[in-house]
Design brief:
Elements lengths: L3 H15 L13 H11 L18 H22 L6 E6 H10 L1 H7 L7 E3 L6 E20 L3 E15 L5 E17 L5 E12 L3 E2 L8 H34 L6 E4 L2 E7 L4 E2 L3 E12 L2 E2 L22 E6 H14 L4 E3 L12 H7 L1 H6 L6 E6 L5 E5 L2 E6 L2 E7 L5 E20 L2 E8 L4 E7 L6 H11 L1 H14 L1 E2 L6 E11 L2 E10 L2
Antiparallel strand pairs: 1-11, 1-13, 2-3, 3-4, 4-5, 5-6, 5-7, 8-9, 9-11, 10-11, 11-12, 13-24, 14-15, 15-18, 16-17, 17-19, 18-19, 19-20, 19-21, 20-22, 23-24
Helix pairs in contact: 1-3, 2-3, 2-6
Length: 522
């Protein structure tokens, strides 16, 4: 754990590197929080050899870095208080994810390699002539990423550069093949996000040729031009890759952002430990903290840590996400504490099929008919005093609700009179689904609704007769209400612009696994 004092030193170091002396503006399109998260991650990169010069950094760095340091200090104080020491979620990115990144990463890499080439000083004539050189095109036909066990990710790329040399006599176009190799280490930042840093980087240039293959340029001049261009690329390409990696870190930093669950609740993910890298995948152990009105929902910590078995889910998927029982318990506790599960069930008094009135109850309970000779509306006040229980068995997920139901009737003075109350037990089948970045659910009733009379102000009540009525007027409104809540969903671990697609969901004993492809929307 990074101390507050060390965090302050890192902030001062980062300020010095960026030349920050006063505040500026955030980059266009970035909120203050997103900018702060991004620059907090950039401040974590330890290898100063690959840092860009202050001229390359955004002008917005001044304000963003100040925000980043405040955020980092705040999280350093808050995270140990609200986070459990063991993960409740595991995110595993497999080889297929690297293949996807390799494909979509070609275009950003091509743009990053469009470096500026300084003028070439031509000494061949009697007068020194500066010659302008510009990169016309960079094509990356091959980009390959592979896991390095216990370390991180290796980048191998082939790029073909096309240069235009603006000679006084006649412009010249040259092509130059370049091989790139970079090893990146994947670690954990002090604000508990993944962070990537370049450990080693090198470029290997091939032989330059004239674009049209005419070989009209003198060999001596071609050698000098090639030597100049190779020297420039050798100095700048690794810096460009480092800048690209820093952009990745900005996105990885958004893992810690608060995501809404309801109007007054949020969920936040943070890493528990340094990522585990094998030759087949990288695994992130993540802790989820749910907040209600700004306060964390804390459950007793299970002494048994959640471990995601190696061979689960769909083989060959990009991502494998394991969700422990603890996450489901926390989400249900949040719903119960927020009062979101409570509801009032009413009926339309003048409807012909309305069973929520004193006349319908009077057929079952004589005392109700005696007290209410005229039909009056009835309300069922459903309250969840105990937390719902999710049970995860292999290929089967269920919910158990134990609501307290108070039955009230409208009196002649518009006040409501309590008739009786019921203790109810409802067992539900839970079907899970994923939509973009959210885990959602739908339920259906399993078996009969169980109920017992808790209290009565209308004499004896035959529970069997009331059960038949409750099955008609209680089950559907409860399911509609609960399914509307579960359809809102809860955000899965992720970063900005990344979505889960074509997911498969598997229920195991005590945990759920999501195997999914990924889609990045740039």
């Amino acid at each position: 754990m990074v101390t507050n004092a060390e965090m302050q030193k890192r902030c001062l170091w980062a300020w010095g590197r960026a030349g920050i002396t006063s505040q500026g503006l955030f980059p266009p399109g970035w909120s203050g929080l997103r900018a702060a998260q991004g620059w907090a991650v950039l401040a974590e990169l330890p290898d100063a050899r690959f840092y860009p010069s202050p001229q390359i950094l955004w002008p917005a760095a001044r304000a963003a870095m100040a925000w980043a340091c405040r955020l980092g200090l705040l999280l350093a104080l808050l995270l140990p208080v609200v986070s459990a020491s063991m993960p409740g979620t595991v995110v595993r990115l497999n080889k297929a994810a690297l293949s996807y990144v390799s494909e979509i990463g070609k275009a950003p890499l091509q743009r990053a390699l469009q470096v500026t080439v300084p003028h070439f000083l031509d000494w061949s004539g009697e007068v020194l002539q500066p010659t302008r050189i510009r990169i016309l095109n960079v094509h990356v036909p091959r980009l390959h990423l592979k896991f390095i066990a216990g370390f991180g990710v290796r980048l191998l790329a082939a790029a073909n550069f096309t240069f235009k040399v603006f000679r006084a006599a006649e412009p010249l176009e040259l092509t130059l093949p370049v091989e790139l190799l970079a090893d990146t280490r994947v670690t954990q930042s002090s604000i508990r996000t993944p962070v990537v840093s370049i450990s080693t980087c090198s470029s290997f240039s091939g032989h330059a040729n004239e674009f049209d293959g005419s070989n009209s340029t003198s060999h001596a001049l071609l050698v000098l031009l090639q030597k100049h261009i190779k020297a420039v690329l050798s100095n700048k390409l690794c810096l460009s890759i480092s800048n690209l990696v820093q952009g990745v870190n900005v996105h990885l930093g958004t893992l810690i952002g608060l995501n809404p669950v309801g109007p007054e609740s949020q969920i936040r993910y943070s890493m528990v430990s340094v990522p585990t890298v094998t030759s087949d995948y990288i695994s992130l152990e993540v802790n989820a903290v749910l907040f209600l009105l700004g306060k964390p929902i804390i459950l007793p910590t299970d002494a048994t840590p959640f471990v995601l078995p190696r061979h689960v889910g769909t083989e060959g998927s990009m991502a494998t996400v394991g969700l422990s029982q603890h996450l489901f318990d926390s989400a249900l506790l949040l719903l119960q504490k927020s009062g979101a599960l409570n509801l009032d069930i009413t009926g339309q008094l003048r409807s012909d099929d309305n069973l929520l009135n004193t006349s319908a109850l009077g057929w079952l309970i004589p005392e109700v008919a005696r007290q209410f000779p005229e039909p009056m509306p009835v309300v069922l006040k459903v309250r969840l005093g105990t937390t719902p229980v999710a049970v995860l068995h292999t290929s089967n997920a269920t919910l158990r609700l134990q609501p307290f139901v108070e039955v009230l009737a409208a009196a002649s003075n518009s006040a409501f009179q309590s008739l009786f109350s019921l203790d109810v037990v409802v067992n539900l089948s839970l079907q899970l689904s994923v939509s973009k970045v959210k885990l959602q659910g739908t339920t259906s009733v399993l078996g009969d609704v169980q109920l017992t009379v808790a209290s009565s102000n209308v004499g004896f009540i035959d529970a069997d007769q009331v059960r038949a009525l409750m099955g008609t007027v209680f089950e559907k409104p409860l399911l509609d209400h609960l399914n509307a809540l579960l359809a809102m969903g809860i955000a899965l671990p992720g970063v900005v612009n990344l979505q889960y697609v074509a997911p498969d969901i598997f229920v195991y004993e005590g945990y759920v696994v999501i195997s999914s492809e990924l889609f990045y929307q740039s």
